[in-house]
Amino acid sequence: MRLILLGPPGVGKGTQAKILVEQLGIPQLSTGDILRSAIANKTPLGVQAKAIVDSGDLVSDAIVNGIVSERIDQADCAKGFILDGFPRTVPQADALGAMLEQKGLKLNAVVEITADPDTLVARVAKRAAETGGARADDTAEVARKRLDVYREVTEPLVKYYREKGLLRTVDGMLPVDEVTAAIRHALGA
Ligand code: AMP
């Protein structure tokens, strides 16, 4: 099963991805997690990406496309994977399509998780309080910026994948376990 979780920051993509990893037995591939780990370890990638990630902007398509292409080639992705936070732009979606085709792989579904914008800002602020500011991009100001970026460059992917017949939409305002059930229902899993 090759799956994309699509939705604004704070909608619960990461939470759902982690549950689905357990239930479906395939890994989560989070470009945000990979970038945060690179930043924490001060790798050349991390040093390059830190200021951009902290500000709520997107790092370049070339960087994340490379991260994903390498990660998909690893053995644990052989049975499938859950993409969380990628693709985030139409050029990234095009690049993903090309890399999957080149690797002889097919995308099964794109699950869009929705929620109202006020709830999202409140959720990100709550995560900031709970994690003691572990993520420099979890402030109300950066949360709003990330929502704006989502609307501008990522939301067009809803139409992009709907036109390919791959889009399923679930309500992210429901309790966590009901969102999981809705995703599994949407996948027929
Ligand atoms: P996330 O954990 O998915 O919310 O990502 C955190 C941050 O990492 C984003 O605000 C971006 O700065 C960066 N990032 C993660 N995924 C991508 C992506 N696909 N394209 C560009 N930047 C990304």
Condensed summary:
The protein has nine helices and five strands. It is an alpha/beta fold. The chain starts with a strand and ends with a helix.
Task: For the record, give the distance between the C-alpha atoms at the N and C termini, rounded to a whole number.
Answer: 10 Å
User: Structural class per helix/strand content?
Assistant: alpha/beta
Give the proportion of residues in helices. Answer: 55-70%
Number of helices: 9
What portion of residues belong to β-strands?
5-15%
N-to-C order of helices and strands: EHEHHHEHEHHHEH
Strand element count? 5
**Principal-axis shape:** globular
Q: What topology, given as strand order, has the largest sheet?
A: 2-3-1-4-5
Question: How would a textbook summarize the main sheet?
Answer: 5 strands, parallel
Please tell me how large the radius of gyration is: 16 Å
Spans of at least 5 consecutive residues with low confidence? none
pLDDT averaged residue by residue:
93
Bound molecules: adenosine monophosphate
Give structural notes:
- It contains nine helices and five strands; from the N terminus they run βαβαααβαβαααβα.
- It is an alpha/beta fold.
- A five-stranded parallel beta sheet has the order 2-3-1-4-5, with helices on both faces.
- Helix content is 58%, strand content 12%.
- The model has no long low-confidence stretch (mean pLDDT 93).
- Adenosine monophosphate (AMP) binds next to helix 2 and helix 3.
- The site of adenosine monophosphate has 17 residues, from helix 2 and helix 3.
